[in-house]
């Protein structure tokens, strides 16, 4: 793999501008129409926007379902990453509209060294390409390069009860291992950033590991809460929570 190809992928403008605009997100990552409007129709499997009595149902648009996923920049890929995520991405990219990113913002929730993280981010992008992710079919980008991830995360945080975050098992385990003095607030709000990653692109499918079950369920709860608070009406609930989300390829519809 040439360095020129990798540089092209990392530095070109994201080619998902049209999709971002349809989702209410600026091509450079900014949220359009500042305020709560972009949050009114958060797409998660537990909620669905139902036209009101005075509204006309939107004309159906033929489009591929959208897949969003990513891994943290470790700089190397282990068998679990490949079998659990990247191998499936390669299979999905022909049939879905795919967004695969390097989740560097999640990586800084625990102590890190900036030069190593920068190097690992580039290496992870190279791994995506080497494993068969095609940049002409999938949008490949670095999470921190799209500032709307953090902007939406802040808006979602303002509506997320602290008790919901305190019950997250991964936070309890990691904070216990690292010690309170070594744990930042970002580790607590990690699941809200994950919810932002999913909801920002109005994802239809989210391939994740089973260790993320609780975080996906939290994403549903956040979407329900925001829609109820700011959507003007309660949305119809669809689907259930729990193990039914995870069968074969792990997808959150």
UniProtKB/TrEMBL annotation:
Nucleus keyword on record: no
GO molecular function, one term: ATP binding
Enzyme Commission number(s) of this protein: 6.1.1.2
Superkingdom assignment: Eukaryota
Class of the enzyme per the UniProt entry, highest EC level: ligase
PROSITE patterns: AA_TRNA_LIGASE_I
Stated name of the protein: tryptophan--tRNA ligase
Organism of provenance: Zea mays (Maize)
